[in-house]
Design brief:
Blueprint (H helix, E strand, L loop, with lengths): L2 E2 H7 L5 H9 L3 E3 L2 E2 L5 E2 L6 E3 L2 E2 L8 E6 L16 H7 L8 E3 L7 E7 L2 H8 L7 E6 L6 H9 L1 E3 L2 E3 L3 E5 L9 E6 L6 H8 L6 E7 L2 E2 H4 L4 E3 L2 H7 L2
Parallel strand pairs: 9-15
Antiparallel strand pairs: 1-4, 2-3, 2-5, 5-6, 7-9, 7-17, 8-9, 10-14, 10-15, 11-12, 13-14, 15-16
Helix pairs in contact: 1-2
């Protein structure tokens, strides 16, 4: 089966497609002994592909995990300040070796469901706004806002030149005695610190923020595990 050369390099787990293009342009990739060019299509099963003189590894079976990110963890591969990262945390709870992409980032102080996958194209599809993959959050707040404030969240508010809106907002009474009330908020796009910034414009402090659903996957899918491997069928449900 013929595929673009940069896809073949990415499928082998060697690098991202973008970095593969850099390698090809730099003359570091050959196909059947000839220098490769951008746009080349190849059949990895029949052709000899070398990167820096070394054979291309065989294609890897992609792995996708659903994790429950705790607070105090950064959604980045490396932090110069030495703070815990999502990959470090995931390794500690069972993520196998490999090059994983984080899908649906959460900020340092937020928690909840997050996807980690070795499938770069899947990560791109899930992150692209055109697919409108819904994400649902629970935001604990000091007191429930009046209806006009909730209506403003549904219409959208301006923050730093961006329009921040919610697809749905459901007020909730305290889940347990002594707990604050909360808002269940559904987004179909994910801007940086979207919910925190939207609520800040409306003078609503966020005491705690947790993502409870990504597409069709909810907290119930994890059970009491911090990390769970998805099947191919589970992955297909995520992208409309």
């Amino acid at each position: 089966m013929s595929v673009r050369l940069q896809k073949a390099l990415a499928d082998a787990g060697l690098c991202s497609r973008r970095h593969a293009e850099v390698l090809i342009a730099a003359g570091r990739v050959t196909v059947d002994g000839l220098p490769a060019v951008l746009g080349t299509t190849v059949d990895p099963a029949r052709q000899r592909i070398l990167v820096d003189g070394r054979p291309l590894p065989p294609p890897q079976d992609h792995l996708t995990y659903l994790g429950d990110k705790p607070r105090g963890v950064l959604c980045t591969a490396l932090d110069p300040a030495g703070r815990p990262t999502i990959i470090q945390w995931a390794r500690e709870v069972g993520l196998p070796p490999g090059r994983f992409f984080t899908v649906g980032r959460l900020d340092y102080d937020s928690e909840g469901l997050i996807l980690l996958t070795t499938d770069g194209p899947l990560a791109q599809r899930l992150a692209h706004p055109s697919h409108h993959v819904e994400k649902e959050y629970r935001a604990w707040i000091p007191r429930l806002p009046p209806r006009p404030v909730i209506a403003a969240m549904l219409r959208g508010v301006e923050a730093s030149g961006e329009r921040l809106r919610a697809l749905a907002v459901v007020p909730e009474a305290p889940l347990h005695p002594g707990w604050p009330p909360s808002l269940r908020i559904v987004l179909d796009e994910g801007r940086n610190r979207h919910i925190r910034r939207m609520l800040a414009v409306l003078d609503i402090p966020v005491l705690r923020l947790r993502r409870i659903r990504i597409g069709s996957l909810t907290e119930a899918f994890l059970g009491n595990r911090p990390l769970r491997l998805l099947s191919h069928g589970d992955e297909e449900k995520l992208v409309p």
